[in-house]
Structure formats: C-alpha cells, structure tokens
C-alpha cells in the first residue's frame, strides 16, 4: 500500500474514532518495527507495557508523544493489559479499538482491511459511519507451513467449542487481531490469554455481529511468545467447560429471545 493510501486510512480512522491498542510484554526485538508500521496507518496508538523487563520501555519512550503508553509496573497478563488499554481508549473518546500483537506475527499493513470491513458493515452508505454492533475478527490461515502445531490444535479445539456455545462459526477464535466496538464490549473476566475467547463468546450472546476477515500472519525467528502450551491450553479448556454451562442457562436462551424479537419487528 502506498503512502497516499496510508494517509487516507489515517484520516478515516480519525473520522470513525478508531485507535490501536497494543499489549506488549518483553517483545523488544519486534516492538519498534511493529509500532512504526502501525503509525503509518493510525496516528492514535496506545501501547500497554505489561511489566516489561527488557528494553521495551526505552523503545516506547523513543516515540515520544506519537504513542500513548499505559504502564502499571508489573506483569499482569494479556487480559489485564487489554482491559487497561480499553479503559484508556474510552477515556480518550474513541468508539472502536483495533488490537494487534507486538510480537511481529500480525501485519499492520492489513489494518485497511479492518477499516473497510467496518465501513462495509455500516448502515448508511452516504455517511459511511461504522456499525457499533459489529466485531471484526482477523482470521489467520491455520494450515500454512510455519504455523506452530500447538497453536493449530488449540485453535481448532477452541473453534469447535465456540460453535457449541454460540451457534456461530468462526475460522479463528484465538487471534488477537480484532476490531472491537468499544461501547458494547463485555466485561473482561480473566487476566490471561483466555480473556480474548470470553470476549468473543459474550459478544455473540449479546447479539454483536462477528465478522471474520482474512489476514496475513508471520512467525519471525526472533518472535517471543508467552503462550504456555500446557497451562494456557488447560485454562482455555476450563473456560470452555464453564462457558458451555453458562450457555445452557443464559447464552442460548438470550440468543433465541433476541432472534424472536427480530422476527416480530
């Protein structure tokens, strides 16, 4: 994408009140590159320093006022980082938050895909206003050659149970590359990785439209991941068990009631 197109995206994101929230924890090797590439498309970037102990703080300081930094001292987990980033975005007056990881796996060059999807989901073709009832989910190719095997299994496992819990099919329920409607976000209950899954489930139960779009993914050699294959998969499994029980008494009934109301409108 050329410079003029990137500038157009900057203007559109400002008009739609979209900011970027980027949680980071000891990703000093990729952080600067990711932030610089994001800034090419968005002038409103919030980076949440989740207790980094490497050189991440110095890297963020070098951007000066171009980046808003949220820092609370010690590592609390991705779910907590997202919660603090969303809180800051609300305080700054934004309507939407686009989340992207700082480990280099996501392509900031795909940001225009999210903005176009947001505008396409809008109800008024003249004003081109975004739809506050849509959550756009970046979907990776889970079968590409360099996709870690553990990630692929965990994702397909999660996708299956997500369909059971919500009746909605999504090709990638574990991705962190998403565009959220800030004012309609459910409460974040967990401080860890499974928080992103719960956000999808509760959003579906609330009647928010989940729109998947295809995005690119890369796993660079110097990528630092803090996903713990055993413990995080275990936590996700426990969460899925709880969500299945909640789906029986709340999730499915609420979806059926909402569908019935729409039918009679």
Low-confidence stretches: none
End-to-end separation in angstroms reads 43 Å
- What sort of overall outline do the alpha carbons produce when their principal axes are compared? globular
How many DSSP-defined strands? 7
Helix content: 40-55%
Give the overall average pLDDT: 87
Largest sheet strand order: 3-2-1-4-6-5-7
- Main sheet attributes: strand count, strand direction, barrel closure: 7 strands, mixed
Instruction: Please write the string of helix (H) and strand (E) elements.
Output: HEHEHEHEHEHEHEH
State the secondary-structure class. alpha/beta
Percentage of β-strand residues: 5-15%
Give the number of helices: 8
Radius of gyration: 18 Å
Structure description:
The chain contains 8 helices and 7 strands, in the order αβαβαβαβαβαβαβα. It has helices spanning 3-15, 28-39, 56-61, 78-91, 111-120, 149-166, 195-205, 229-264, and strands at residues 18-24, 45-49, 68-71, 96-99, 134-139, 178-181, 209-214. It has a 7-stranded mixed sheet with strand order 3-2-1-4-6-5-7, sandwiched between helices. α3 (56-61) links the parallel β2 and β3 (68-71). The chain is globular. The protein starts with a helix and ends with a helix.
